[in-house]
TrEMBL record:
Residues 141-153 have a biased composition (Polar residues). Residues 166-181 have a biased composition (Pro residues). It comes from the Bacteria. Pfam families: DUF6542. Keywords: Membrane, Transmembrane, Transmembrane helix. Residues 2-117 form the DUF6542 domain. Residues 124-140 have a biased composition (Basic and acidic residues). This is Gamma-aminobutyrate permease. Residues 124-226 are annotated as: Disordered. The chain crosses the membrane at residues 46-66, 97-115.
Amino acid sequence: MSIVVAALLTGLLLSMFNHTIGAPYIILFVLSSLVVALFTEARGLFITVACIPLSFAAITVLTSWFNGRALSPNISGFSATALVTALYPLLQLFPVLFFVTLGSTLIAFLRLSLLRRRVAEGERRERELRRRTAEAEQRNQETVSRLNSTSAARRTRHASSGRTPQRPPRTAAPPEEPSSPWPSDRARASSRPRYSAQHADRERRTYPGAPRQDYPSARRPHRRDY
């Protein structure tokens, strides 16, 4: 609002110098009104636009009164003639005031409409972003739950179908041969190699086709009668 007032006061000085309200006054008013309508913050835009015609009317009447006093110093400043002379330029410039005010109002309305649309678009994008984030989190939770259920089912299946490994039966050691009471038989038994079950198993693994050697047990001697 101060921009419009400053422009009108500048036009007032130029009009007093020229003793008439001319084109510089109108140009300054139009430019200042457009600048205010385009660059004022949205929260104070309507108040600023509404004050434009009031400022123009007040400063135009004041400018005309100063010009009348300069051109007719003998006429009283508060006479009816002086007041009518001061109001007459305002009536002449009313079309300019009307179109400038209308243009400023349209600019303010368009700015507010675009601002509201931009705010609505931003809110829509935020809602869309929140919705996508929620869907992604839900998909992740479903994936984790599905993996957990699959792992649990697999462990249960393995536990139900698993078998305890059985140990192979132990091979009994061959019975020891009874010792013979005769010295000659004991000597032959001690000189003969002994084969245990482990040795026989090792030989079968090493030579699978070899026949098994069975060693006869020591012959129990018979007691002779001398």
